[in-house]
Amino acid sequence: MPTGTLLYAQSGGVTAVINATAAAVITAARARRVKVLAARNGIVGALREELIDTSAESSATIRLLAQTPGGAFGSCRVKLKSLSEDRARYERLLAVLRAHEVRWFLYNGGNDSADTALKVSQLARQYGYPLTCIGVPKTIDNDLAVTDCCPGFGSAAKFTAVSVRECALDVAAMADTSTKVFVYEAMGRNAGWLAASAGLAGRGPDAAPHLILFPERAYDEASFLAAVKAVVARVGYCIVVASEGIRYADGRHVADAGAGKDAFGHTQLGGISSYLAGRVKNELGLKVHWTLPDYLQRSARHLASGTDLEQAQAVGAAAVEYALAGMDATMPVIRRGRGAPYRWDIAPAPLDKIANKEKKLPASFIRADGYGITPAARRYLEPLIRGEAPLPYRRDGIPHYVALKNVAVTTRLPAWEG
Amino acid sequence: MPTGTLLYAQSGGVTAVINATAAAVITAARARRVKVLAARNGIVGALREELIDTSAESSATIRLLAQTPGGAFGSCRVKLKSLSEDRARYERLLAVLRAHEVRWFLYNGGNDSADTALKVSQLARQYGYPLTCIGVPKTIDNDLAVTDCCPGFGSAAKFTAVSVRECALDVAAMADTSTKVFVYEAMGRNAGWLAASAGLAGRGPDAAPHLILFPERAYDEASFLAAVKAVVARVGYCIVVASEGIRYADGRHVADAGAGKDAFGHTQLGGISSYLAGRVKNELGLKVHWTLPDYLQRSARHLASGTDLEQAQAVGAAAVEYALAGMDATMPVIRRGRGAPYRWDIAPAPLDKIANKEKKLPASFIRADGYGITPAARRYLEPLIRGEAPLPYRRDGIPHYVALKNVAVTTRLPAWEG
């Protein structure tokens, strides 16, 4: 039975299945009789010494946690700078880890979190503090290096593909006398993975989505509007999926162009779907609707991917295994077997190959005309949305999601004024 | 075995379960050996003599139809005027019905469709043409008179409540360092039924949604912003649900205020969620996100309500029964039994009690402060989102939705230039 404490924290935008990873971490640690603390609101809670005693939660609650979206311990959008620039914060962090006999630190997040975990590892070595740091992958953006895919992405991708399919059926039914163009806004500031996943909604040249706008391709308004017009003429309606992050050839974000002043002179917020819808309406005179699913796409646990859920749990269990084996500065990543059928396993990868790197959509995944996905993209994406992850609903019609007690651990250090 | 043809048509905005009604109509008619034609794109197809022979679809396809969102035969947004104003169109309609020996006309829609069905009934009587007209209820707006609720609403309500619950878990996890206010835009131009259903997402004073804006209450910006500020101070974040149709005290739509000019001087489209988000950001300085689910909320068959699905099928079967019994100018409506547990049945109601009427949210359903629902609203709404309507997914991770062959019936009349 290993001695010491395992500290787990969630970081960055949450997903439909990050709590499944958390539940797997807790379950695997319990099986090894290792005490698990969780930081409240990610690294912020570790700095503030706001720690949660997960042993206060029953096994039944941890099982429900695995099916609850959001981040049950709180997450954060905070990036620590370099060890030299942020020395005081890193030292405070080390003091907190030391005060609670933390021997294993698991940081569950994306690129930035991998970077933080790596820096904490380096710091501990500098100070001779025995600590194993593990980055645990999570991001709906699917943009982590090395790993074949990222837990959280498959569920957001499934939400995207299913929602686009459903909306397309709606628009197809109404197009004769009503909406002819529909614009769906997908998350993805720099990488078009979620926009690409919309391509799974249909097959064939006239199946929705008809046009996908990727951040990896410059937005050309004349070309886009001409393409919309041509699709409406051919199919009767047009379903457009746009990545929030698309840019003009000069690098400016198109969404920022959507910002302006409202009728009262108030500053307006941008948004790519309303912007594109406005252009279609004004330039083509077509009736248009648009959707901005926003957080719905990353929190829709009710529509999670079975593959994604399994992988989210697998990286959590592997993270505990790697931690207890002392595999410092690593991340459990997902490896894909060659060819069909789809097979995957988990393997360790060094954090320094992942930290701060960003994996964009390969050019081979984008159709020659720039407005759709290739068969290669489909082969990559489809297994990730495969399978369902059914969850029990309560009598009142709402899924059975759980709220943790989140019992605070007594502080052992003076309050931090960081 | 009754002689003649039954004509079924879909009208207005489609829903997650209108095809379940269509499937029930076809199944019930087949059991009585009655031939069913469907008009393509609602009344428009009846006028154009664009009719579909449903006998070309197998029983297996009709079963899949029952689980497919959208309107499989096409719907329309067309309202016929009075018999005197639109005489030529009504006479053309009668000519088409006569040419295809239509004895039963089932129009599946909302207020306007009930009005159309009633007028067609009156016209047939004027001309001595033997026809039974049945209005079949359908609307996510839940605003039809007489019926306790409307097929399509329960599923949209379930989508709303579940999505708000999921987004609230997301925001709760991030609020410490990121988004503190989230605005969800619900459909409902005049009646706040869907906004109210968001109230089912949580219970208790601090559970999301914290503020609901109803079209039945005048929007007061100072009061709203003060309420948001107070909730953020108390809870740490604030989930707002706004009906698209909210108005100022002087009757102007707030969403229209959101329209304006973008950075290039292009006319922008309105939208209540982006408008409110902009006000929160500018006036309170809080980080805000917003969602416009738009058609997602009415086409999400993957999250349909079990109760709603059953009712959608029941009104379809009853419509055929009423039609064959010659119960002209009626609608099968849903009646609720008194008290708990929730019980319902189907009963006939005269179309003239329903046509062109609009049922708003009762004042007793809106909390005294105007920003939430009452226990009476909860008692009414909750049974309508109860139960699931699971559907098979294909191997590729997408639900098994069907596309009909929609075989056209040979025309018997000269083309119409209406």
Word description of this protein:
- The structure is a homodimer of 418-residue chains.
- Chain A is built from 13 helices and twelve strands.
- With 418 residues, the first copy, chain A, is of the alpha/beta class.
- In chain A, strands 3-2-1-4-5 form a five-stranded mixed sheet, with helices on both faces.
- In chain A, helix 1 (18-31) packs antiparallel against helix 3 (59-65) and helix 1 packs across helix 12.
- The first copy, chain A, is elongated, with a radius of gyration of 23 Å.
Write the layout of secondary structure elements.
The structure is a homodimer.
Chain A: E1 5-10, H1 18-31, E2 35-39, H2 43-48, E3 51-53, H3 59-65, H4 87-99, E4 102-109, H5 111-126, E5 132-137, H6 153-174, E6 181-186, H7 193-197, E7 211-213, H8 221-235, E8 238-243, H9 254-258, E9 260-262, H10 272-284, E10 288-291, H11 296-299, H12 306-324, E11 330-336, E12 344-350, H13 375-381
| Terminus-to-terminus distance of chain A | 36 Å
Please name the two chains that share the biggest interface, counting residues whose Cβ lies under 8 Å from a Cβ on the partner chain.
Answer: A-B, 88 and 88 residues
**Which regions of chain A are unreliable across 5 or more consecutive residues at pLDDT < 50?**
none
CA-atom Rg of chain A in angstroms: 23 Å
Order of strands in the sheet with the most strands of chain A? 3-2-1-4-5
**How many DSSP helices of chain A?**
13
Percent helix among the residues of chain A?
25-40%
Q: Assembly type of the shown chains?
A: homodimer
Order of helices and strands of chain A: EHEHEHHEHEHEHEHEHEHEHHEEH
The backbone outline of chain A, from C-alpha atoms, is: elongated
Structural class call of chain A reads alpha/beta
Beta-strand portion of chain A reads: 15-25%
